[in-house]
Amino acid sequence: MHLARFPRVKLCQTPTPLEKMGNLSKLLGGPTLWIKRDDCTGVATGGNKVRKLEFLVGEALARGATHLVTQGAVQSNHVRQTAAVAMKFGLKCTAVLEHRVQTNDKDYLQGGNVLLDNLMGINIEHRAGGTDMQAAIEQVGARLEAAGEKPYLIPGGGSNPVGALGYAAVALELMAQANEMGLEIDRVVHATGSAGTQAGLVAGFNALNAGIPVLGIGVRLPQDRQEANVFKLAEATSALMGGPAVPRESVMANCDYVGDGYGIPTPGMAEAVKLLARTEGVFLDPVYSGKGMAGLIDLVRKGFFAPEENIVFLHTGGQVGLFGYADYLNAAVA
């Protein structure tokens, strides 16, 4: 897995911490829980998308791009991180925001990630929920190219084979940390949405012959569609790296914790956010890591994991989004 063959820019503060969650483990009475702190990657409050942007922006610069174009939901963590990286390298940035969550809540529409996007002064366009967002950014790219720009299109979540290289690199980083600590990892659990994080981890662990299962806790799609998306991208990522074939059984998603839909809060998410804050002093986000941890907590309570296992939860960041859900969370944790 020779990732130096690919254009890359240095963005992340690595390695991100790998910490034991002793208080939470004791409270739940299950396996030993660990947390990989990819909320601490550095740029624009950090998060998992910075990992992907190292390779995506590396390729963009190698191609002479002048303008990054991407998309996401209104409270997109990916858009915020992409915008910040664009500022760092003197690139223009246009974000197309989908109104995927139907709400008139002022905090959601103007606070959190939206506030930071506005502070950075990027170009923002809006689309209705259900829009073909890849087609939307392709239209924006064509318009910019006609105006003399050199756009580089980044899919939602930065989730294509180039972006997923960022999490193949994390597989390597996590193995190095575990080996140094003498930690035998039995499973990695994280929130899975646009598929790039899970696909990169699966392809990376597979290339390393690590034997570490990855369980994605879905935040949007039903299980069959989520696993199909992850597997397709993991295959493409492995092929890009020149790695081995990815076994279909290595892609696992549990989508029982989505609730009423993407970005719609659930009681389990609120409990998970509260528990992590009050046991470990760690803040989750309401859309991704909150639902991912809600799934992990429920599975521990149901005895899904053996008591002697070491489970690593990958924290994908996104705490800025908490401020877009202030009313719900204040009521839920009161």
**How many alpha or pi helices?**
12
Give the low-confidence spans.
none
Termini distance?
A: 48 Å
Biggest β-sheet: strands ordered side by side in the sheet: 1-2-10-7-8-9
Q: Decide which structural class fits the backbone.
A: alpha/beta
Q: Give the biggest sheet.
A: 6 strands, mixed
Helix content: 40-55%
**What is the CA-based Rg, rounded?**
19 Å
Q: How would you portray this structure in words?
A:
By secondary structure, this protein is α/β, with parallel strands linked by helices. Helix content is 45%, strand content 16%. It is built from twelve helices and ten strands. A six-stranded mixed β-sheet has the order 1-2-10-7-8-9, sandwiched between helices. Strand 8 (214-218), helix 9 and strand 9 (251-254) form a beta-alpha-beta unit. Helix 2 (49-62) crosses helix 3 and helix 10 (267-280) packs across helix 11. The relative contact order is 0.17.
